[in-house]
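The instructor's notes for this session suggest beginning with a concrete chain rather than abstract definitions. Hand out the sequence below and ask the class to guess, before any prediction is shown, which regions might be ordered.
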Amino acid sequence: MTTGTIGAGRRAVLRLGASGLGALALGREARAQGQPQRNFPEPREASWVARDFRFHTGEVMPELRLHYRTIGDPSGEPVVVLHGTAGSGAGMLSPGFAGQLFGPGQPLDAAKHFIILPDALGAGRSAKPSDGLRARFPRYNYDDMVQAQYRLLSEGLGLRRVRLIIGNSMGGMHAWVWGVTYPDFADALVPMASQPTAMASRNWLMRRMIVDGIRNDPAYMGGDYTSQPPMARFVAVFYGIGTNGGTLAWQRNAPTTEAANRILEQRMAAPFNADANDYLYQWDSSRDYDPSPRLERITAHVLAINAADDERNPPETGLKDAAMKRIPNARLLLIPASGETTGHATTGNARLYARELGEWLATVPRRSG
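After discussion, reveal the predicted structure:
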């Protein structure tokens, strides 16, 4: 395992990309005028039904709907993009991520790749508690979610191998689960904003507060509520502030009590359209995540990308470094904290690592089959 930081090379990229800041400003102006800024083909949406889906609990659903988006021609090299908790595949189409990776000449150029963006089990338009079962929906975990992705890709789309699985946050953790569960399926894994160790410490403590906060809200009524429990909004804002945003960015954006109060008031007043059962299940699904006992099973080449100021996966614990040493052909790319980083959210800004990703992927050998 090798570890790299973005230093002198990154400064060069920032100089070359200075005009990119103007491009982002132009993009915002064009969007305000209703002009699309997508630099890759229009995504196509579809759903596929997995029959007799067996959860780790032993429960079986006769039909499990799995929704997904694709970009590019199916003849291209398959690339799987996995989203974070409470998100969906649509969230990975942002200018800061897809706009830096899927366009012409970019690392995952849609003219060369067949990009697949699943909605995870329990999220987006895939099967989830709010479809009708509410709290009677099977209590899925990450193993179930990755199994659903595998069935979608292998049975639904007929794929035997993919070039790359790249995921952010929960999607990064799913990429680790992919590596230890289906070690021959991908040439390359890029788990971002994650680490291949047990869900614990601050990360789990605050997730547990989300789960318990909703369950203990009298309005929750065991999942059979008639209106959304107010605690769901509160714990969502609390968790976001505590585990996202970056120390330097927070100080810049909220340097006074008045500024901090304004941000909090804006967040509490913002629309919160999540269903409480869906939201609870999404965070609870990480409860037994721990790929660490099986890391030696990983045969794909790995580029793990983390930010030095990631609140949920702090590098100073040394856990990530120790785990990475057990994986052949693994490299850690650590983005130093700066005025540009935003803690756990940093890896949503692909401009900070697109060049390194492209150069690394070009060195990864292709498996046969």
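Then share the key points. The radius of gyration is 20 Å. Residues 105 and 111 are 9 Å apart (CA to CA).
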